[in-house]
Amino acid sequence: MIETKGLTGAQTLLRVLGGMGVDRIFASPGSEWSPLWEALAEPQGESIPLYLSTRHEEIAVGMASGYAKATGKLPAVMIHTTVGSLHATMAMRGALHEQIPMVVLTGESIGFGEDEGPDVGGQWLGHLADIGGPARLVDRCVKWSFGVNTKAILPATIQRACQLAMAAPRGPVFVSLPMEYLFDKMTKNPPSEHGSAPAPTADPKGIEELADLLAGAKNPIIISEEAGRSPLIVEHMVELAELLGAPVVESRSTGYLNFPRNHPLHGGFEPQEYLQEADVLFLLGVLAPWHPASKGPRSGVKVAVLDENPLRAELPYWGFQVDLCLTGEIESSLEQLLKTLKKRLSKGEAGLAQRAEKWRKRSEERRRKWKEEALSVKEKMPIDTRWVTYELSQVLPPDAMIVEETITHRLAVHRYLDAVKPGSYFAGCIGGLGTGLATALGVKAAAPKRPVVCLIGDGSFNYDPALAALGASQEHKMPILIVLFNNMGYLSQKSGVPRYFPDGWAVRTKKFVGISITPSPDYGTIARAFDGYGEKVEEPGQVRAALERGLKAVAAGQVALIDIRLDPVSGSGKRPDK
Fold first, then answer.
1. What is the pTM of this model?
2. End-to-end CA distance of the chain
């Protein structure tokens, strides 16, 4: 049992978090955390988490997200009361939708200096307090939110928060801790030593039905967006695809590497292309595989879904056809599915081999065209995104880990970085921009000896707390390579105007409002301000050498930023800053 009786609330917090497997605290706190800082300064006989200050709330939550994605472990986050909680809500909402576990902790005051004991200060009543406290402010952005309301339950509440964060479907949970309780002595121990219960495997009868459906299909197609959280899941998916002779298709918005992208059964990134060919669609860890949901497969096609949260209860609308819905942890459920399928199918059966050969030929042709596209723009001015990602693929170290926070460049990233290994690619955003740099730092915290590359657009870079991220990188010796796709504007915003108003004033006059990020600064100088390496690239022939210099700087312990100037969003072909 974790012993907390007689400890201060701050000591208790550290001990319970450590006992529940939390080994990192990513923090952007305020003055209410002084009891915890004192506890961290004490000689420690118990194993407690490593405390990392991050300078901004979004950086703290983003780093926790990257760390959880890269390790599968539960991190903790400490932020500053109501104002810090509001800063962090965008990132917490992203973690909720991505199903990323973390325990987010904030301080508050419930006594406002009227109780005996240390005075929390007049700023609480004057500036920091809100009715209901921080827990009420953020409850729609997390899986579970609670403000501790008596010291007796503080140890058990921290333990429960850890359990809830890791319970299926995983996600961020939020606990506000009154400063008064952090000073006070605890009267109870948490109830048990038990961690979170493992997510259940899908129902055996459902797995039997799914195996029958797949074994009897003439043209099964597997679609996945988020199953690749674990490299072992990817191994199972490879075995499943090869057993069935079926392709695995990812979507453009995939958050992980769900299937090796140089495998002959990788089906690309356009699920909609396959909807009229399939007779069975197996949706494995998907959010929104095609759009709109109603434009699904042709009549008679069966759709099976397997996920911890298959019907996406957190979304107001989902709308996809489901004929067989299995709720369960993907890794163990796939293991059982494979065992069941092997009783029905033999790998290499004539019909299955012919099916696999068809998809292999299509995959080779697709990849050949992608390569031709990249090489056709190798001398194009301004620099083309496809050339940048192709050149990056030529110099990327085999053990590199990729974090991507782009929108319009994402498809090129998926297509050309095809040698990235499972468990080494992570999306840095969902539903909002501003956490890519922090996610990359969290991945670096998880794998300090591996090169981490953050691919980010200039629009995203301006949403990120970039100075705080670079500062955290420098302070904690976490060098990453930042490749900035700089088109000096918001291409995603511009593209919607001609789509909705093809004959409108903006198209006719070439007057697109609010799309530019100009004058474009020399972003590389920002990295140099943090003892890093920075470089601006304007010629396509310079791309590879610049990327190599950036990787060399990172290997030497410097953060590096390579600012690659692409075709400006203005559409004029001329750089708006020249």
1. 0.94
2. 67
